[in-house]
Structure formats: C-alpha cells, structure tokens
Specification:
Elements: H1 2-14, H2 42-57, E1 66-71, E2 74-79, E3 84-85, E4 91-93, E5 107-121, E6 124-141, E7 145-162, E8 165-184, E9 196-210, E10 213-227, E11 232-243, E12 248-261, E13 269-275, E14 281-286, E15 297-301, E16 316-318, H3 320-325, H4 328-336
Antiparallel strand pairs: 1-2, 3-5, 4-5, 5-6, 6-7, 7-8, 8-9, 9-10, 10-11, 11-12, 12-13, 13-14, 14-15, 15-16
Length: 339
C-alpha cells in the first residue's frame, strides 16, 4: 500500500523521464541498458541490492577463514581448520609445485566437494563445492595479520543449512578480486586475540547466482569488517550491478555501512544509494531487520534534480515483507496475526 502511495507522490516526476538522456557516463553501464528506477520497480531494485550485500557477506572461503603462520622468508596461508571441516575427500589441496604461478608460500589452489564449513552443529552448517585459487600472497604474520593477494573463483557453490533445512543457495560464483586482509587486537589484552577482521576487495568483474537471481558486479570495491566479540559485521559496497531480473545495470553505493549478524536475513542498520538511468536515484535507510516492522526501511527519491535533496517532502516507510511481497504482504500479515 505504501509503495502505491510512493507511486502517486512521485509518479508525475517519471512521466517526462523517458525523454531524458542517460547522464550516467561510466563505461561499466554499457552495453547493457541502465535501469530507470521507478516506483513500480522500487521493491525489486532494493531486494536485488540486498542480494548483493548478502552474497558479499557469504562469499565461500572468505579471506578471514584462512590461517596464517610465519615461515622462513615469508608466510604460509591455509584454510583454517576451525572454519573448514570436510568429511573424506571433500577438501583437496591442489596447490602448484614451485613452478608456474609461484611456490606454496604465495599461491594456493583448493577444490571442495560437499565440504562442511562454519559448522555450528549437525543441523546448522554451510556446504561448499567448487574450485578456488589464491595467488600473489604477500604480507606479515605477527600478533595480528596483514596480508594481501588475489582470489579466483571457479564454479563455487555455497548452500546454507539451518535447522536441518536449506536456508538459501549461493551458486555459480565465478570471477576474481584483489584483497587486503588486516586484523586488529581490539582491547590489547595479553592473549593478543585479534577480534576485528577487516577485508577489502576490489575487481573488474565478479558474478554469482543468489536464490536464482543472476548478478554481475563490475568496477567494485567492498569492505567487510567482522567483530568476533559480538558477531556483527559491517559491509560497505561501491559497485555497478548488472541484474537479470531488472534487465540492466545500476550503481550501488553505501553511505553508512550495512550492519548485521551472519545468520540474519536482513541488515540491522545502514544506508545506501541506488542510481539508475536518467540519474534516477533512491536512498534506502535501514532502521530494523524485523520482517513485519512497518517502519523497517525508509525510502527517499532524489531525481529532479539529483542534488541530494529528496524530491518528495515526506519519506516513505515500508516493511521487508512489503518490499518482497508487495500488496500481498498485508494479507500475509493479517493471516499471521493472533486471533
């Protein structure tokens, strides 16, 4: 219902947009069409961006899952046994010999087959399959780590199992990115526990399928900072996103990091801009991760002109349910309400 109100408020603005030139100059938007953000596709664009955010948070074999140890002349990096446990031959080290792309001090190749990772118990875990190469590893190992390199994914797949049932699927992950990983000792305790794990990744092209939605990122930079003390993470995104469901590209930029818990479906807080063709722009501010909270997500349009000032005088608030289900959300909420 609130999205219909949004349509009434700004619908007149979009009436003349079809005649405007596409002012977005970045070549990453070509040759695919740029998405013109309208009240009719607001929900789709927002949930598509959330899929990108979740995919970054759930990348198989994240840099933070690696263990680092000092060796003569450099460092040794391997998958952490605490983060990755596999039955039988589910995990195979196919690292190259000391020829080719480098020795085992700075190049690794791992193959996964129905590999259980991030195991909580026998009903809650992730399943990994696919192939990954880590190369050009450089850095130091001390009380906390600071190293960089490059990841290359080939046909990777992650399936999250929660309470014995598939929660969601991240499949067909292909592409590469450069990374830098830094850990920090937050409280400077004697045990030198490195509670903060911060990874910055960047690249030209990276693709994945999230619950059937095919997405391709280009010219992207992402920062993922995880606090092991409280289990929360902050993700900052800056990328061009090519979406099959939207049949085009849009720009995704966070203004405040998206904050959440690893197993939460939606962020707890954060703010991001979505910019499409004709400089159509939507600012999304997340106020809650509760599915049926009618004030969970705040929407503001900045279209004519794109000057950082919302075109409508009143912000629109919607629930995650409404963004996903549209008008059907009201019926679902009524059915779930206590009688």
């Amino acid at each position: 219902m609130k999205l219909l109100i949004l349509l009434v408020v700004v619908g007149g603005i979009f009436a003349h947009l079809s005649g405007c030139d596409n002012q977005t100059q970045d070549p990453a938007l070509q040759p695919r069409n740029s998405v013109t953000i309208t009240p009719a596709n607001v929900g789709t664009v927002i949930m598509n961006a959330i899929a990108v955010y979740r995919a970054h948070g759930e990348l198989p074999v994240k840099v933070a899952d690696l263990s680092v140890s000092a060796q003569s002349g450099g460092i040794q990096i391997k998958s952490s046994s605490a983060a990755l446990t596999c039955a039988g031959d589910g995990f195979n080290d196919e690292s190259p010999a000391p020829i080719g792309i480098g020795d085992k001090g700075n190049a690794f190749a791992y193959r996964f087959s129905d590999c259980q990772s991030e195991v909580i118990d026998n009903q809650n875990y992730n399943v990994l399959s696919g192939f990954i190469v880590m190369k050009e590893i450089r850095g130091t190992s001390g009380a906390c780590d600071d190293f960089s390199g490059e990841f290359v994914y080939e046909n990777m797949e992650l399936q999250k199992i929660r309470d014995g049932l598939p929660a969601y699927l991240l499949t067909q992950i292909d592409g590469s990115y450069s990374f830098r990983h830094v850990t920090h000792d937050l409280d400077q305790d004697e045990g030198h526990l490195c509670e903060i794990k911060k990874t910055t990744i960047s690249g030209d092209s990276f693709g994945f399928v999230m619950n059937g939605e095919q997405v391709q990122e280009s010219l992207f930079v992402s920062v993922d900072e995880f606090n092991t003390n409280v289990g929360t993470y902050n993700i900052t995104l800056d990328s061009y996103v090519n979406s099959d469901s939207l049949n085009g590209r849009y720009k995704l930029v966070t203004r405040k990091p998206l904050v959440g818990l690893r197993d939460n479906q939606y962020p707890i807080s954060g703010k991001f801009d979505l910019v499409g063709a004709s400089v159509s722009q939507l600012t999304v501010e997340i106020l809650s991760d509760a599915y049926d909270d009618l004030m969970a997500v705040k929407l503001d349009m900045d279209i004519d002109p794109p000057d950082g000032i919302p075109d409508a005088s009143t912000s629109v608030y919607v629930s995650w349910c409404e963004l996903e289900k549209g008008d059907a959300c009201e019926i679902l909420l009524e059915e779930d309400a206590p009688q």
